[in-house]
Protein 1
Amino acid sequence: MAGATTQLGPHASFPNEASAGARLAVRDVSKTYDTDGASVEALKGCSIEVEAGAFVAIVGPSGCGKSTLLNMIAGFDTVSGGEIYMDGRLVAAPGLPPRAGPDRVVVFQNGALFPWKTVLENVSYGPVRQRTLTRKQAENKAVELLRACKLDAVAGAYPAQLSSGMQRRVEIARALMNEPRVLLLDEPFRAMDSVSKTTMHRHLLDMYRISRKTILFITHDLEEAIYLADSVIVMTTRPAMIKLVISVKLQRPRHPRILFSREYLELKREAAESVHEEARKAFERGEREQA
Amino acid sequence: MRSRRFWMMWVGYLGAAALWYASVKWLPIASFQRLPDPVTVITEWLSPNPTYGISIFTYPYYLHILNSTYRATAAFLLATLLGVPLGICMGWSEIFHRYASPLLGLLRPVPPLAWVPLAILIFSGIESAVIFVTFLVAFYATTLNTVVGVRAIEPDYFRASACLGASRRDILVDVIIPGALPNIFTGLQIAMGAAWFSLAAGEMIAAQYGLGFLIMESYNLIQFPTIVIAMATLGIVGFLSSMLIRTLGRRLMRWREQTLGFAG
Amino acid sequence: MRKTTAPSSKLSSRQPPRLAALTFPAFRLHTWRVNWRGAVSVGGFLLLWELLVRFGGGGFEGIPTLAQVLSTFWNKYLTSDRYWQSWLVSFERVGYGFSLAQLLGIPLGLLLGTRRVFHEVVYPLVELLRPIPPLAWVPLSILFWPTAELSIIFITFIGPFFIIVINVHDAVRSLRKEHLWLARSLGATRGYAFRRIILPALIPSIAVGMTLGIAVSWNVVIAAEMIASDVGLGRLTWEGYVSHTATTVIVGMISIGLAGYLSALVVSYAERRLMPWHKVT
């Protein structure tokens, strides 16, 4: 298969005890939206236990509520019911104001690099704003990180000048600079072509191998989920609930050749039926709502 | 060899000028004959000793321009200094918007020029009244466009900055201002144009110097070519000031100009 | 923490943001929830008015309070023929000027956008004349047109005229060529392509142009009347000024504002009928 062109080199910020992954516990979390009188239940009774340093993928039909769950874990949105714990500490509950922070950094679907800042300014943004490092220190650390990702050549460029693959890598680097306990990725590779996606998978897996953070990865692509994660959670369509949890016991480090292995195909078969059933339900509901 | 568009443009200008000249000089319609013709206007404009006292060589011409420019700039700056922060507050905080928007909406339908008489009565001074009316127009343009600019910022940028540990002040400086800047500058350009429109009107109604005033005075003193000179000058100054803002905007937002250079 | 809601649905997504901002409706007549905060700020404004008149001194001395304005209106203006005639006259002028601007401006914009030679010759002229404030045309207009009425209508015409020409021209220019090519490859004639593809694509821009144009028309007619007429709402306001009767001035202003607002409603209604798919709130 393809050579190790984007293999991440060893880097000081990667293997770091302080930023090893956190344990995440989502207990019976639900979310209802009240818009203009009608109340819509987006998420119902979801419970997930994520071990420290685990790579968990969440799969489901589009618009089912996966992003809602991520928003609550990340601290962007309030929780209507249930609680969320990180390393035993309560981070979200009904009535608690949502607080996002650098311990749970998100990589967004359409990319949220600040277009008006250069790559270097973007990557060094977190520590500078949190005042954990001076600007000079942050920039030095950022340059080292970019070098390890083979992105140091574009440090002075603006995001619009980069390809989407490079932008996504910069965004991941920006997230890592904050040494988050949990890394949340919201369909980050959705808009990319399959070649770039392969590169990104390798990059993500390399990074995970070295730094072992807790990763929550949302995708609609079942194959991608099984390939990358330790466990795959299949969600139903609205109101989103957990339908199925699959434990992926494939060997790490993952290599593209396992895509053809018997175990992989077996896992895929097990999950595919569930996923397609939900997708069909979502489609039919959409049709009924339009009719 | 200049492009075809260049030549066609001049065909248009000269054709229009010729049409103007012909209709004033040769058309037997009284309406047309009352108008000044382009040759007279141009000669007057460029003459070192103009018949009616206004040309590019006369001092009062620049006095009028300066007066108008001063008023327009003052009103514009005031509108920007008040309108942009207000727009940011309204765009950022829904609650603030609910307080402010109906009040603005209440006063908006009143055409700015309708304020002139009242403004003169209240401010008891022509200068401040004219600047006030001009300010009103520019103010609405800057405020509303700033609101649009803030609201048009992708929510993900706010979320990302929250993740990265930004305080509210950081969000203002790092997300809101740069994110809204394109729309803010559009608003500033519109405000500048609107300011000139309004200023000209205000001066025509009630001032003693300035290009608008010059138009009315030349009309009253039967100095018709000067009317056209003043009109043309107004157009030019308005155009130049908008261009100035546009250039400033482009320099501040250089990141927008960068197109896809690297191919990953 | 800012509520992470999507960009406000109040602004229709199709309109270019800057123009949309200027068409933002003042009150949402078709929602029943009362915005009490808005009521607070409006109430605060009225209170400020009252206080300034009573204690402001200086320029505020001759200014009437809201109560005085309303009572004067009720007693003097409501039943005055001349007052309602002013409404009619101003409305007529705006109506003629504005409609003429659309009737002449839309075809001109189309020509400019579709015929290249025409564009190269005429567009620079449009660009040249556009920055000249409509009111600056008043003296020439008076000189040229035989009657005062015509000269005022010309002024209310000029403002919206340039706006609609530019809007239509820009809209035609930004049409996706692919749509036209698709239609052609499916067998459409030029006439059909024009009627069914180009024209409907123009409607949003025409709507925006009309909304802006009507505001400009009103702005301009008032001033034109102040300068050059003896009837009309603008003239009424001016007479109040000349006679130092601030009450008349304020009545005039409120009437003008109302008239402008009503016209904007009419345009907005037409816009909604023409574009049922458009989410205008």
Protein 2
Amino acid sequence: MAKSLAPLDGVFQSLADPTRRAVLVRLGSGPASIGELAAPFDMALPSFMKHIHQLETAGWIRTRKDGRVRTCTLERKSFDLVESWLDEQRAIWNERTDRLEGFVTSTHEEEGAE
Amino acid sequence: MTATLNPELDLSVTRVIRAPRAAVWGAWTDPERFEQWWVPAPQICRVREMDLRPGGSFRTEIRDGAAEFSPHISGCFLAVDDHERIVFTDALLGGWRPAEASFVTAVITMSDHPDGTEYTAAALHRNVADRDKHEELGFQEGWGTVTRQLAELVEA
């Protein structure tokens, strides 16, 4: 169970921070450079870059470097990932119950035949 | 005590299994039988501890292909009602020791049914969010809602 949750850890961590949420909201209106994104925050660039890296690693954004300017773009897949997580858990439990049912009914029939 | 499900976080699977309750209970509580259905092939499950009493340790391992066994569930039983109910969580370890990470409380119930056994597995999931941060942004509880609202916000 823990295994299937692993990709989501970073996704949720992203949302737990106000700076990162603000970056996501800003990127919703279109790609932006690191400089533009950092401007509203009273924060040293290395600290801000940690947030950018976290968002990129978690899959919320993509970054691309053109010359000296790094541009960030919103990535939609993390939204889909969070939406589908409960469905995935449901599938795991459904399949697990299928296997229990298969196991119990087959072994029960064998016992009954003896 | 009955589990209350939060539709944003929890799930419940119910199935009528055409076998007596003793057979279903046995498949759950006998480690050798449990190992045969808990994880999908080709993964292999190994039960390290299954101390079926409140506070009893529940530890399983999983092996995928040629890799070594790695921890799968590390938790403890909260309630064990003979042939009726098993509740476990990974929020606590054996002896009720708090766990590092928690993810789920599972409530397994079995009852007699004209066609065999009615089996229900409910999984209650922790809200991984920091609730205060949620409220700060005006999000309602639940990640489904959070992501929908965020998606609407960024797409506006």
